[in-house]
Design a protein that fits this description.
With 380 residues, the protein is α/β, with parallel strands linked by helices. The protein has helices at 2-5, 21-33, 50-68, 88-95, 119-139, 154-164, 175-185, 214-236, 244-253, 256-283, 292-320, 322-354, and strands at 12-16, 37-41, 74-77, 101-103, 106-109, 150-153, 190-192, 206-209.
């Protein structure tokens, strides 16, 4: 980050835990050589929730503001493994005065040797940040934040802190998602900005590795699913009564509660259909023809699936090249498999929370990319 942003006006607050001496030492070494880096050691042994760590960083920032008398305009959120973009701060500066929060795209890096599991994040973020968020913005619905590559105005965070004590809710599994909804409830607008590096070039975006194993991916997605579709539903509700576009988008956010059971039934049906087909072929007994309505419904469903795959492939190809675009088709099966496993885990997380259990943070183990591993983006 110091190398990418160089002389731009910023300060980095790095959150650490008192029981992680190795990280404290590493951050302290950098802080000694650059005054823009602040080491913040939280009071609670880790891992706590991300929101708990962010609140400690916010307190440190506010202490500096009081001591120095120099206010900050906005807070930018990043995870330690993110690859920031050189023009990122310029994008925030261009929009932050008019909006409560600014979000830029997240473009995952595919881990070497993990075409399917790590690669399916390329597909999902390409569709989410290349299609879903722009449509959501066009409809005027609330814009959930991704937790990285987003800037929130400091005066907005102070208003939230005044209302509930802390700007970030430590009881939330997905504080970034909920923060976007909170801004809308306050009457603040957020904006998703897809700004090209150069005319026709790739977007100013955050890049990072995501999990490369099924187990790690399931743990991460279970937390997202529990925090958004289950516990998040209880916590955030539906917003203003006649805000129909926002209701529709929140319903889409929570569709996993219906989509995962339907998906499981659909895959089981395909297995049984294949089994009965083989059984009829082996016995010579002709298979009864399907009802006309079923044939029509299956044809429509197949056409919609083909359209979804084409759109997904095109969005991925625009960012990562045509080879990754082709991989997006088989990777949808991988995404469904991981989603089914994550849904089961998310249900247990949610039931534990309903029973009064404490929020448990499933920390995702990330790989830190080197310069040689960062593949260039293709286009905007």
């Amino acid at each position: 980050m110091l190398a990418q942003w160089q002389s731009q006006p910023y300060r980095i607050y790095v959150g650490t835990y008192p029981n992680d001496l190795a990280t404290i030492a590493a951050v302290a070494e950098v802080a000694q050589s650059d005054v823009r880096v602040r080491l913040v050691v939280g009071p609670h042994p880790g891992p706590t929730t991300k929101a708990d760590c962010l609140n400690r960083l916010w307190e440190a920032l506010e202490r500096d503001v009081a001591a120095e008398g120099r206010p900050f305009t906005a807070v930018v959120l990043h995870d330690a493994e993110d690859v920031v973009h050189p023009r990122e701060l310029a994008v925030y500066a261009a929009w932050i005065e008019r909006y409560g929060a600014v979000q830029i795209p997240v473009v995952p890096l595919r881990q070497p040797g993990s075409v399917l599991v790590s690669g399916h994040y390329l597909d999902e973020f390409a569709q989410s940040h290349g299609l879903a968020l722009p449509v959501r913005q066009m409809l005027g619905a609330s814009l959930p934040l991704a937790g990285v590559g987003c800037a929130i105005r400091c005066d907005v965070l102070r208003r939230i802190a005044a209302a509930r004590g802390d700007p970030f809710d430590p009881a939330s599994l997905t504080e970034d998602y909920e923060l976007g909804l909170t801004l809308r409830a306050m009457g603040e607008r957020g904006i998703f900005v897809r700004s090209a590096e150069t005319p026709g070039g790739p977007p100013v975006a955050v890049r990072a590795y995501f999990p490369a194993s099924v187990t790690a991916s399931v743990r991460q997605k279970a937390r997202w699913m529990a925090g958004i579709a289950l516990a998040g539903w209880d916590r955030t509700g539906w917003g203003r009564p006649w805000d129909l576009c926002d209701h529709w988008m929140r319903m889409r956010d929570r569709r996993a509660t219906l989509a995962m059971p339907v998906l499981a039934i659909a895959y089981a049906t395909l297995l049984f259909w294949g089994f009965t087909y083989l059984l009829h072929a082996a016995t010579g007994i002709p298979q009864p023809p399907p009802a006309p309505w079923l044939e029509t419904g299956a044809a429509i469903n197949l056409a919609l699936l083909a359209w979804r795959l084409v759109v997904r492939g095109v969005l991925v190809a625009r960012l990562h090249g045509w080879r990754e675009g082709l991989w997006a088709v088989p990777r949808m099966l991988v995404a469904n498999y991981i989603g089914l496993l994550a849904a089961r885990r998310a249900l247990w997380i949610y039931l534990r929370l309903l029973a009064g259990g404490a929020v448990h943070w499933d920390k995702t183990a990330h790989q830190f990319p080197t310069a040689a591993m960062r593949a260039p983006l293709v286009s905007a």
